[in-house]
Amino acid sequence: MVSERGLEVLRVIVQDYVASREPVGSKSIVERHAFGVSAATIRNDMALLEDEELITAPHTSSGRVPTDKGYRVFVDQLADLRPLSPAQRQAIEAFVGQSADLDDVLARTVRLLSQLTHQVALVQYPSLSSSKVRHVELVPLTSTRLMTVFITDTGRVEQRLIDVSAALDDAFLADLRARLNAALVGLGLSDAAAKLEAFPDQFSAERRPLVAQVTSTLVEQVLANRQDRLLMAGTANLARTEDDFSGSIYPVLEAIEEQVTLLRLFGEMEAEHGAPQGAHGVAVSIGQENADFGLGQTSVLSSGYTTSGGSVARLGVLGPTRMDYSNNMAAVRAVARYLSRLLGTD
Amino acid sequence: MVSERGLEVLRVIVQDYVASREPVGSKSIVERHAFGVSAATIRNDMALLEDEELITAPHTSSGRVPTDKGYRVFVDQLADLRPLSPAQRQAIEAFVGQSADLDDVLARTVRLLSQLTHQVALVQYPSLSSSKVRHVELVPLTSTRLMTVFITDTGRVEQRLIDVSAALDDAFLADLRARLNAALVGLGLSDAAAKLEAFPDQFSAERRPLVAQVTSTLVEQVLANRQDRLLMAGTANLARTEDDFSGSIYPVLEAIEEQVTLLRLFGEMEAEHGAPQGAHGVAVSIGQENADFGLGQTSVLSSGYTTSGGSVARLGVLGPTRMDYSNNMAAVRAVARYLSRLLGTD
DNA sequence: AATTGGCAGTCACGATCAGTGAGTGCTAAC
DNA sequence: GTTAGCACTCACTGATCGTGACTGCCAATT
């Protein structure tokens, strides 16, 4: 059983190791922290911690380093959410955007988060599900190529290109556009999709294939989920913290370029760690817990944010397990809240 | 003066060095290539090449390595555009997209290029200048927040968020939307911008501030240049080729995350090297030629591509100076041509 | 029972050093 | 212009050896 003081020792080991990047020994602990006991006593506590596999020794005679399990205990029980520094607060405030589109807001958010944490930052696009159809537009690009644009009342805009088999005819297109808008505008998304299924039936057999092509594309757009996109910034920070990765950073860079992987990871974090860390709303996934994703040497912090459309998406940071959890959790939480406010109904 | 054979020696030095990553010596040259002369003769040629600063020796007694100047001569005079391998051709063909929007096409293109070259790939968004207004849409998100959507007949879609001071009124919005479309649809972009300037005058003094807010946003959108965005893929390849960078790859990763920098670099390449390398349409910028951009240890290859809108944008790759120019130039050219065909009027 | 001082033992790390080998530059001969 | 030969340079490797920062354990102390 690890004593009260033992946990305190774990805390300072994590803190010092994160700060110095060097294994921390019993002597340096008593020097730097006022425990009021001798190094030998600390050594006894450390032996306990090692039995519990919360810390480990890189080699027989050297300081100790936290294990993944140790970080986990630190995050769950010991980390105080260090309040952001005034400079950090200011960075968030200064970020207040002029009017700009969603793409810009998210792009700036991801950069902000990366600067606050000095890690790789991730922001998932929100999906707006409870929205209604606002407008449908058909744009002929060439004689056989058509662009469809689909706009919802929550501001989602989807565009698609179609190569049509038959040549396009302007008058017919105008008619089709009018009929589509008449039929769809104001409908909820699932209703709109249902209505589109039967839509081609009202046309002559001759026109029907073309119309069917358009409507099936529109169905895709209606149901399309922008949530499968995410933004990333600060990959350079991985190189900066290169020494924290045993081999090369190549596999890590490779893994994070696979957006699907990260989206799955976000999904799992929502499911698994959503509630436990829910106290402050930041989920943490550490080291080997991410092994399935090729990210066994990294930790990921994430938090949900909401938009006026009522949708929930995630944002977070990714970095070496040896990272400043206190600061980064606070930053992720602050940015998520800020973004919720910015995109929310206020 | 460097002899004919001297240049041939330079060629094999570049080729062997790129392949082996090791300084190449006179002996290994005569072993691997049928020059029909002895190593001593090659050594004489190499001494000449060194006088011309085309190659250099990492240390007194070791093989030679090409200088930036040497790569330049290689690219300008010696590189044959090695035809793509069947597998590479196939990768491009397999890439033929189903109907999908511009974002998807470019995202897939950038990944393709990165896989073909094993380098960082870059694709600049096209700007569509000779297009006409197709449709304007106003979407109220909350009582004081409005989204404007702007669509051209070439398929560009721009969206912006505005916080309006006065509360929004649906009937008025519908009227405003109708009037805007009536006034603008069919106009060229500069004409539309001009017309928007005077547009608020037709409204009552009470309404005018709100309308002015909307029109000024629309003017921005009309003139907005999507060319200031670019996509990137394959940053992991930098880590893979890490040894080719003297220090860390951190400054390189940092530089390429600054999109503005890369866009300026693309701009300069268009201006300076467009014509000279124009023979095959691929501009090459080597090592110290990029020092201004913090990319003194990297080379950048780029080529323009065109869209049906008549606009020209660039795509290319970035990697260590020690890269396979022959293959990469061919890949950049092939992908640029392919993309032009895909987005062009055919 | 918890804490402490002391001491032997471990082991990474850095410095030093000699041997090795790839590769050059030069010169004299062809 | 080309070649063979030879002396010379210099990075790299591996071995050896201190050094120092630790721990682990034990017996003494509170």
Description of the structure:
Chain A contains 13 helices and ten strands. Chain A has a five-stranded antiparallel sheet with strand order 7-3-10-9-8, sandwiched between helices. In chain A, strands 4-5-6 form a three-stranded antiparallel sheet. A two-stranded antiparallel ribbon of chain A has the order 1-2. Chain A is an alpha+beta fold and 346 residues long. The radius of gyration of chain A is 26 Å and the shape is elongated. The interface between A and B is large, with 45 and 46 residues.
In short:
Chain A has 13 helices and 10 strands. Chain A is an alpha+beta fold.
Topology:
The structure is a homodimer of 346-residue chains.
Chain A: H1 4-20, H2 26-32, H3 39-51, E1 55-56, E2 65-66, H4 68-78, H5 86-94, H6 102-117, E3 120-124, E4 133-142, E5 145-152, E6 157-163, H7 170-184, H8 189-198, H9 208-223, E7 230-233, H10 236-240, H11 250-257, H12 259-273, E8 283-285, E9 298-306, E10 312-320, H13 325-343
Antiparallel strand pairs in A: 1-2, 3-7, 3-10, 4-5, 5-6, 8-9, 9-10
Helix pairs in contact in A: 1-3, 1-4, 2-3, 6-13, 8-9
Chain B binds a DNA duplex (30 and 30 nucleotides) through α2 and α3.
